[in-house]
Amino acid sequence: MKILFLAPRFPYPPYKGDQVRAYHHLRLLSQRHRVTLLSFDDAAPHTDATDIIQSFCERVVTVPFKTISMVGWFLRGVASGYPFQTALFQSRAMKNAVQTLLAQHEFDVIHVQLARMAPYFEANPRTPRVIDLVDALSVNMQRRHQQERGPMWLATWLEWRNMQRYERFICQQFERATVVSSSDRSAIGNFENLHINANGVDLDKFLFADQTQREPNSLVFSGNMRYFPNVNGVCWFIQHVFPRIKHHLPNMRFYIVGTDPHPQVLQLARHDPHIIVTGHVDSVAAHLSRASIAVMPMQAGSGMQFKVIEAMACGTPAVATPFGIGGVDVQHGQHLLIADTPDDFAMQVQRLLTDVHLRTHLATQGRHLVETHYTWDRSIEALEAVYEMAIRDRA
Length: 395
Hints:
16% strand; Rossmann fold; alpha/beta; single chain; 7-stranded parallel beta sheet
């Protein structure tokens, strides 16, 4: 197939969830198909990053992303009628790039990543379209709205309602759509053309590590540390859970691993030498493999959390809130432990630290679950099937 792949961000380095997903989809699609990547890029890509992506693609086209003020962002969203994040990504330069590529090249299918890029293909071109919504962003905004105070309370309420409407409109307009989990599909609506395509893990990089190789009494959280659900979850954990754990285990260490840590997280960490904020690291897997336990204390968010399946791939026993599970098909006590309240979360962490047999069981079963259900090869097989359906829809 000849595929036009439209992405909101250049997929390398893959720091953010949508970049990780796009990177691995491009990497594997290119082994069997001819792929053209068109993406925004908020800075000139480093030569090595461009070379890596060009090695996957027949051609790579980037359009500069122009930032605007918060007021301008708000007014653009209100004026356009689109959700704010969709309005933010509308650009005459991108529209021209899309039209040029369609005029100069024939494609079998167009892959559009995220609702923010959907307006470029709302019109019904002759080429079949598949949109990867990834997750139900309306749910993400609803949960963030419930956590917000002040001016963002209204902004997140508007974004929640607008995105809920727009996601359903997209499913009615595009031939096929995908999300990462059944919970995201249910939240948007059980459209016949909306399919589940889970995230995956690169098992060659996230290797299983034995429990004997771990740093004692160490916890790890991994993720993009500018993403609201991550910042919010880590702050909740530091303020409400970590003190309860340290009351029984004063030497406990908590590693926060992820790019671009938020000032709020840095401020909280300054008051406790047992909290280590790493910032960007070359290998998240190395930190997951070294820690005793991974924690996912999310209080908001949607979609499928990479931090869950990556920890399980490394054999790192985990404790997660219901939001932290993020659409991964796990069972409490079989693949990880689930806790909701601060007291319960602290108790489950302490339980794991004192029960080596439970840690070993969760590690083994978690790795097996990832190997059987959450690999990028499985994700690509599902995506190719959706492409074929979209092409048949237009036949």
